[in-house]
Specification:
The complex is a heterodimer of chains A (302) and B (262). Chain A is of the alpha/beta class. Chain A has one domain (6-55, 73-195, 218-298): Aldolase class I (TIM Barrel, Alpha-Beta Barrel). Helix content of chain A is 31%, strand content 21%. In chain A, helix 2 runs parallel beside helix 4 (145-158) and helix 4 (145-158) packs parallel to helix 5. Chain B folds into three domains: 13-107, Translation factors (Elongation Factor Tu (Ef-tu), domain 3, Beta Barrel), CATH 2.40.30; 118-222, 3-Layer(aba) Sandwich (Rossmann fold), CATH 3.40.50; 224-262, Ribbon (Dihydroorotate dehydrogenase B (pyrk subunit), domain 3). In chain B, 19% of the residues lie in helices and 34% in strands. In chain B, the strands form three sheets. A seven-stranded antiparallel beta sheet of chain B has the order 4-3-7-1-2-6-5. Chain B has a seven-stranded mixed beta sheet with strand order 11-10-9-8-12-13-16, with helices on both faces. A two-stranded antiparallel sheet of chain B has the order 14-15. The chains are: A alpha/beta (302), B alpha/beta (262). At the A-B interface, strand 5, strand 6 and helix 8 of A face strand 14 of B.
Chain lengths: 302, 262
């Protein structure tokens, strides 16, 4: 009997360690034709901000070798829309629903998080201090220890349940940032968000994205992500949630062996909308085939 | 909001379909008609005109899937018209008979079919959903007028298919067949119409929309965009509309031009 139950602490218990990454799984219902949502460890819904955001103009996406660049820019209808229209539907999903919270100022993060506090079924928020596609805030907070600590500390004061902080890979030492948010009371860290990248449309002699630069995701970033998860897992005492180019169970196991307590599936959802459930089933099969009762014996084995 | 829920509730279930290429017809150097079939004995899910599918290019030739308009869908068959435009469509055009291709769908919204005197205008590979729409009108007992614009004489296979369901007016840029000129100058416009539907290159669709607007006729266009997911999750394929930025994959690909700010 395989037990994949994953306790990330501070009240966030997952049926298994497979989450879907923010911005790649909508609000969950978009994937209900392909995935039994209650088979997932959890769903991290798209980046939510205090005020509605239109996002960036097109083109917002460019395919690159083994990956894609995006410049969506946190298009969302705002936290109040989530509270009124999305949250009531999520209770039927039978899985953990985690809200990714973003903002352009510390006050905006705090206010958005505050409005989620009454939603008792939301056991965790993921603080997005690493979005490369918004001019102010976003990644700016995530690229210095001071900025990361400041926003984490401020949200920690108002958010009473599990606080996951999503880290940017666009830094010199991600382990330093992880330690900074741990010191301010983060319950877990998730990494990596997208790598800042750029592509040029040489026929039209212009940048492929309207914003010129954007966030790179997909299998191309996976070795960078595995390395960073390994470094951070050695540096902090809180659980590490790994993501970056996971497209199958083998990829998920790489992160787990590098020290991840849970993983997120992102860009791969676009290619195979059923992939998240396949990774859950793949982890169960791996444990059975290797005589493991859980993933504990192999977690952080590197 | 209620209306929104109603739409969602009647949206057909999307499926991941593993289809076998039964025929891959090379119509021109850069244009192929792929006929694919389910091998599990089930019929294809309904894919009304305007819908598209996400195709996983054979040999995983690209990172992302490729959105392709449904040209024809009947029994356990799906037909796609594919123009070579890069690695993904090259892999589809090179697929041998017997190749298994994964296709996800149906995706997107549909053309309206409530007009009694519709004018359909297709340009290049954009004729694919226009054929599907002409067939839908024919199924309702209406023989639509179809203006088909191409740079040079179009593939006879497509014209033959179209002529079974529509009155076809060919326009070519080089005058090698039909009317020598733009689709907007075709004599077909002399008729009396209550709706224009179009799909093709963006400048052509804008010109068709302008001509329809000048004549006071409602106009639907089928847009394309760079897509990742195709199901409204990634928010990559947005088009500016009077109601803000909306996904082409779920709010479209068919838009009434009065919604667009292009």
């Amino acid at each position: 009997m395989v037990n994949l139950t994953t306790d990330l602490g501070a009240g966030l218990v997952l049926a298994n360690p497979v989450l879907t990454a923010s911005g790649t799984f909508g609000y969950g219902s978009e994937y209900a034709d392909f995935v039994e949502l209650d088979r997932l460890g959890g769903i991290i819904v798209k980046g939510t901000t205090l005020e509605p955001r239109e996002g960036n103009p097109g083109p917002r996406m460019a395919e690159t070798p083994g990956g894609m660049l995006n410049a969506v820019g946190l298009q969302n209808k705002g936290v109040d829309y989530f509270v009124e229209h999305i949250y009531p539907q999520t209770s039927s999903f039978g899985t953990q629903v985690i809200v990714n919270v973003s903002g352009a100022s510390v006050d905006a993060y705090v206010e958005a998080a505050s409005r989620l506090v009454p939603l008792e079924d939301i056991k965790a928020i993921e603080l997005n201090i690493s979005c490369p596609n918004v001019k102010q805030g976003g990644m700016a907070f995530g690229t210095t220890c001071e900025g990361a600590a400041q926003v984490t500390a401020a949200v920690r004061k108002v958010w009473p349940r599990h606080l996951m902080v999503k880290l940017s890979p666009n830094v010199t030492s991600i382990a330093d940032i992880a330690r900074a948010v741990e010191e301010q009371g983060a319950d877990s860290v998730s990494l990596i968000n997208t790598l800042l990248g750029m592509a040029v449309d040489v026929e039209h002699r212009r940048a492929a994205l309207s914003t010129i630069t954007g966030g790179l995701s997909g299998p191309a970033v996976r070795p960078v992500a595995v390395r960073m998860v390994w470094q951070v897992a050695k540096a902090v005492g809180i659980p590490v949630v790994g993501l970056g180019g996971i497209a199958c169970v083998r990829d998920a196991l790489e992160f787990i062996m590098a020290g991840a307590s849970a993983v997120q599936i992102g860009t791969a959802n676009f290619i195979d909308p059923a992939v998240s459930q396949k990774v859950v089933e793949g982890l169960e099969a791996y444990c059975r085939d290797h005589g493991l009762a859980s993933l504990e014996p192999i977690r952080g084995i590197i | 909001m209620l209306f929104g829920f109603f739409l969602i509730s009647v949206m057909p279930k999307k499926e991941i379909l593993h289809l076998q290429v039964d025929a891959n017809e090379r119509l021109r150097a850069d244009l192929h008609l792929l006929r694919m079939r389910r091998t599990d004995g089930q019929p294809m899910p309904p894919m009304p005109a305007g819908n598209f599918v996400q195709v996983r290019p054979p040999q995983n030739a690209t990172t992302l899937n490729r959105p392709i308009s449904v040209c024809d869908c009947y029994a356990d068959n799906l037909e796609l018209l594919v123009r070579r435009a890069g690695a993904g469509t090259d892999a589809m055009c090179d697929a041998q008979s017997g190749t298994m291709i994964t296709v996800i769908g149906p995706m997107g919204n549909t053309f309206s079919t409530t007009a009694t005197a519709p004018l359909l205008v297709g340009g290049g590979v954009g004729i694919a959903p226009i054929f599907a729409l002409a067939k839908a009108y024919a199924g309702k007992g209406i023989c639509p007028e179809v203006v088909f614009g191409e740079r040079t004489a179009p593939a006879q296979q497509i014209v033959t298919k179209l002529e079974k369901v529509a009155r076809v007016h060919i326009c070519t840029d080089d005058g090698s067949e039909g009317f020598h000129g733009l689709v907007t100058d075709s004599p077909a416009w002399n008729g009396s119409f209550d709706m224009v539907h179009t799909c093709g290159p963006l400048p052509m669709m804008k010109a068709v929309a302008a001509k329809a607007a000048a004549a006071g006729i409602s106009c639907e266009v089928s847009l394309e965009n760079r897509m990742a997911c195709g199901i409204g999750a990634c928010l990559c394929c947005v088009e500016d509309t009077t109601d803000g930025r909306r996904c082409v994959c779920t709010h479209g690909p068919v838009f009434n031009t009065k919604e667009l700010t292009w």
